[in-house]
């Protein structure tokens, strides 16, 4: 949600991080700046106190609030998002928006992020012009994104030089429908990219999970086995190769119950036999990053198992899709909207989950799961 900042400047404006004492003024400004999509007191308070956000305010010498900018910093990635920017109607013409954006850019760089993204109403021509002047480029579009049903333009700016331009693939993004179907949702993204006629339905998401599940994990529903995902992909018309850093049953160290260990082992052995029967190659070695990029350049897409620890502090196995790369980063489509971390009036956005830049060294750490540092990659191609 972006209001219309302008580009002149004033030396008497102080840009600082917001404090709890600013809450009342922030709510008043929010009411002036927006007729819908407003942030609540709870959201402002969370932004002020959260380590994952930065809320900047622009103040006059007499203490009057002239504007604010809310920045979200995605943990474990090189991505930041300018979530909301507002300027008091009485302060237009002072360059408040530009000053606040600069503050967000400096914070983004200080936190080690490389890419700053935002969305802006396609009818907000003044804001769009300012972002373009400041180096932001359009890279996407959302229909009926705001409460008033206006569309949103997606823009981004690379704040740190990253060598060559990004190499990306046009991959439809899909959210996982349950906490345990990241693997099926990732496969559905690949299927939607490679087979445009494929219908990514919630029923097929569950069917893929039924075909690929390990049955048991530490608690709750079992996740998806890489061989199971490869077999599900093969069944739906793709060629699949599986790269595993170990030969034995996967995930057994995540459970203590002997019955569960036995079931996981039997499922693993069954998947391995099915792969042999239908001709799905199994490579018992970690896929080198250089080879992964080479496969991407040759038209393949990869589903990769990561640990979410560096992103959310949890040691959970999670499947993502490689959607691009540049000299310093691997880009991924993450099917998890992470609803648990969002407030009611700060809804999760697909903007935060597409082409997520992760530093290569950080990605290599993420793509090792559990005590055995398991690495699993499923490489998919059109037949």
TrEMBL record:
Organism name: Marinomonas polaris DSM 16579
InterPro entries: Acyl_CoA_acyltransferase, Bact_Acetyltransf, DUF3335, GNAT_dom
Domain of life: Bacteria
Protein name per the record: Ribosomal protein S18 acetylase RimI
Coiled coil: none
Molecular function via GO: acyltransferase activity, transferring groups other than amino-acyl groups
Annotated N-acetyltransferase domain residues: 13-160
Keyword Membrane: no
One Pfam family, short name: DUF3335
Keyword set, alphabetical order: Acyltransferase, Ribonucleoprotein, Ribosomal protein, Transferase
Cellular component, GO annotation: ribosome
């Amino acid at each position: 949600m972006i209001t219309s900042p302008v580009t002149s400047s004033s030396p008497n404006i102080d840009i600082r991080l917001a404090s709890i004492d600013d809450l009342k003024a922030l709510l008043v400004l929010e009411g002036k700046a927006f007729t819908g999509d407003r942030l609540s007191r709870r959201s402002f308070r969370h932004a002020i106190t959260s380590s994952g956000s930065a809320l900047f305010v622009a103040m006059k010498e007499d203490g009057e609030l002239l504007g604010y900018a809310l920045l979200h910093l995605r943990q474990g990635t090189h991505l930041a998002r300018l979530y909301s920017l507002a300027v008091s109607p009485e302060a237009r013409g002072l360059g408040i928006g530009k000053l606040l954006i600069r503050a967000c850019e400096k914070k983004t760089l200080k936190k080690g992020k490389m890419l700053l993204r935002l969305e802006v109403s396609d009818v907000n021509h003044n804001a769009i012009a300012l972002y373009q002047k400041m180096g932001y480029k359009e890279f996407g579009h959302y229909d009926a994104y705001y409460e008033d049903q206006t569309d949103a333009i997606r823009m981004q700016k690379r704040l740190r030089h990253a060598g060559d331009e990004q190499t990306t693939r046009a991959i439809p993004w899909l959210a996982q429908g349950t906490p345990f179907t990241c693997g099926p949702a990732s496969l559905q993204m690949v299927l939607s990219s490679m087979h445009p006629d494929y219908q990514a339905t919630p029923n097929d998401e569950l069917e893929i999970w039924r075909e690929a599940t390990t049955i048991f994990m530490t608690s709750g529903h079992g996740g998806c086995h890489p061989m199971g995902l490869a077999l599900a992909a093969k069944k739906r018309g793709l060629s699949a190769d599986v790269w595993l850093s170990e030969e034995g049953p996967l995930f057994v160290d995540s459970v203590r119950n002997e019955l569960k260990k036995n079931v996981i082992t039997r499922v693993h052995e069954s998947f391995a036999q099915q792969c042999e029967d239908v001709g799905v190659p199994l490579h018992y070695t970690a896929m080198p990053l250089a080879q992964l990029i080479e496969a991407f350049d040759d038209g393949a897409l990869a589903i990769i198992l990561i640990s979410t620890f560096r992103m959310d502090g949890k040691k959970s196995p999670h499947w993502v899709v490689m959607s691009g790369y540049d000299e310093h980063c691997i880009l991924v489509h993450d099917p998890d909207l992470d609803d648990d971390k969002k407030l009611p009036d700060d809804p999760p956005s697909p903007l935060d989950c597409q082409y997520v830049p992760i530093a290569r060294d950080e990605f290599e750490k993420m793509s090792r799961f559990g005590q055995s540092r398991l690495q699993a990659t499923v490489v998919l191609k059109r037949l």
